[in-house]
Amino acid sequence: MVSALIKSMRPRQWTKNAFILAAVIFDRQLTQINSIFRTFAGLLIFCLLSSSVYLINDVLDIKSDRKHPTKKFRPIASGNLPISTALLFALIFIFISITCAYLLSMEFALICLVYFLVNLVYSKWLKHVVILDVIILASGFVLRVLAGVSLIHVERFSPWLYVVTTLLALYLGFGKRRAELTLSSENASLHRKVLNGYTIPLLDQLITVVSSSTIIAYSFYTFSAPNLPTDHTMMLTIPFVMYAIFRYLYLIQVDQAGGAPEELLLTDKPIQLSILLYAISVFLIFYSPALANLFG
User: Fold this and answer.
1) How far apart are CA 213 and CA 76, in angstroms?
2) I need a labelling partner for 143 at 20 to 30 A (CA). Which of 13, 16, 18, 76 fits?
3) Averages of pLDDT over each 10 residues, the chain, 296 residues
4) CA gap 78, 282 in Å, rounded
């Protein structure tokens, strides 16, 4: 049962909570111990809170999951984890996460509460509304960024990053819907009712709009954010962002993958390499002057 509970907590999807790190990274506070501690504490809290959401979602989706070719093997759908046990631990996780969030800051606790309530409404009703379902999912990523901002004293966090986060989340969301629609084929609506309102041409148009908008918005950030180097070296990171976006597009349209973006993040080596090179570039651009002075 312990193994079933851990699996239902979906630790592989905790990668989404990495958006909490945006504030401490892009506000250039990686050298401040207090900011790092508070951010990683918030990250752990969000992981626990998101797991409570996954448990409740799996309970609500138990009937449709049992009709899905792969989701039917989930612990709750397969009966390996009783519904009562799942709900009990969900309540425990909610209590612990909200309490610990309050100890960090009232604002962070409120954001956590809003995140939980939005996902609860999504799991019960909004996940069945075409387009709005993906917008609600995207809002979860923006709330994660806001959560990270609320944990530290932000000096010059660019609003462009909120725009980039929103567009990137929409891109991943529509890509996921396309993959689900492609893989599920004729039985798509049985597994997820909202897929009945989507078509491949519609999703391809939406993906084209948000992917190009993401690249444009990120490009604006690289030369207009107030805390970036004045020599615009941050623009050198644009190719890494473009490649990751194009690679994901290739995976969902050519390889018919993308039903679980977090799985691609953990398994696709080209995407992992582009993220690694991006992270190294950002670190060098932000902190190379300080390192040069340190080792001077």
Assistant:
1) 39
2) 76
3) 92 93 92 94 96 94 82 89 95 97 96 96 90 95 96 87 96 92 65 83 96 96 88 94 95 80 86 95 84 48
4) 44
Helix, strand, coil fractions of the chain, as percent rounded to 5: 80, 0, 20
The two structure tokens encoding residue 114: 């809003």
Domain ranges within the chain, ordered by starting residue: 1-155, 158-296
230: exposed, middle or buried (Cβ count in 10 Å: 0-12, 13-18, 19+): exposed
Burial 188-216 (b: 16+ CB within 10 A, else e): beebbebbeebeeebbeebbeebbebbbe
Q: Please give the single-letter amino acid code of residue 106.
A: M
- Cβ density class 252-289: b for 16+ within 10 Å, e for less: bbeeebbbbbeebbeebeebeebeeebeebbeebbeee
pTM of the model: 0.91
The domain defined by 1-155 folds into: Tetracycline Repressor; domain 2 (1.10.357)
